[in-house]
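Record 1 of the preview.
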Amino acid sequence: MGNEIDVHLGKRLRRRRRLLGLTQQQLAGACGVRFQQIQKYECGANRISAARLWQLSEALEVPVAYFYDGLAAIAQGRAEACDTGGEVLASKETMDLIKAYYQLGERPRRRLLDLAKSLNGDGEHG
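->
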């Protein structure tokens, strides 16, 4: 299970870094490590210490708990249920859409979300 946790944390790290449009070099600079270390964290080859996880969470503007989201499902043997959404979120198209969405102001974001829900046939707009 130990390695599965390292891999999970690495995937979450990569996802958030990409979402923010940061390179491994930029994130490494913010944490005082070399980009190769970020590479090793992202693939799960190196374990992330508690202190480094805190630095990463600060640099990526997320709570430390973000990195552990979905881990309980893996521990219970439901990795497939967890990874389905991960594959969608990892695609370049999805990441580009999310970046563009967050570059909009609050009102246009709300309107775009309402539009997307209406196209999907979802009647709830809240």
